[in-house]
């Protein structure tokens, strides 16, 4: 059965990519719009830094690294989860999720790989060059250890992002409605492109625990740069690395629980 699933997954991805690329002009115009949108955010940060030199003790190249890290980790994680889990609410409301339950296939795997969002290519096209410039510009002596930490932190941040989005989407299996929770998610997510130490203690605690999105950006980047990390201190780097795998396990357990509570469109 596992081998069968692995053979089917590339087919699901290929079919969805072909459908998204049917109107290529519209697809790439939309990608350009996204790049311009995030580019304006990046420009705003650069204007602030040109006036105040630092933000919470972070200089311009360090903030560029933080912004690009946050954007890349989000785009990789959301490509595997956001659109698919956002649409789950509609599947539950209309009763079409029931059809997935009778397929000889994992409902989660079918949702994720049949809806893989290549639209996040625009985020990656903006984040990778910016990250390359920032990596060369920050004041850090790169070693094998720091390079491995950087790569592992991106992977952990990607997993954490996908896990949180999965849990939000899975809530629709219990409540039917869950998309309002994405508004809360993105409200906190926008805060994580800035250093954690500029926020009040209460918000810092929330961004590390209840909505641990700081672990996808300022915590791992701050640990890499040797910045003081509120609350976590010297444990920041280790926590950032294990957060992704731990939250994936939590998301898997929550997905199974939500499916066990699902009663169908009729309630």
The radius of gyration over CA amounts to 20 Å
The residue fraction in helices comes out at over 70%
Nearest-integer average pLDDT = 86
Major sheet: none
Structural class: mainly alpha
Number of strands: 0
- What's the assembly state of these chains? single chain
Order of helices and strands: HHHHHHHHHHHHHH
How much of the residues is beta strand, in percent? under 5%
Unreliable stretches covering 5 or more consecutive residues: none
SS field, number of helical segments: 14
Task: Describe the protein.
The longest helix has 29 residues. The radius of gyration is 20 Å and the shape is globular. The model has no long low-confidence stretch (mean pLDDT 86). Helix content is 72%, strand content 0%. It is mainly alpha-helical. Helix 3 crosses helix 9. It contains 14 helices and no strands.
Secondary structure layout plus pairing:
Blueprint: H1 2-20, H2 24-52, H3 60-79, H4 82-86, H5 88-94, H6 97-101, H7 107-113, H8 121-137, H9 144-170, H10 172-175, H11 180-189, H12 201-208, H13 218-225, H14 236-261
How would you sum up this structure in a few lines?
This protein is mainly α and 267 residues long.
Could you list some keywords that capture this structure?
single chain, 267 residues, mainly alpha, 14 helices, globular
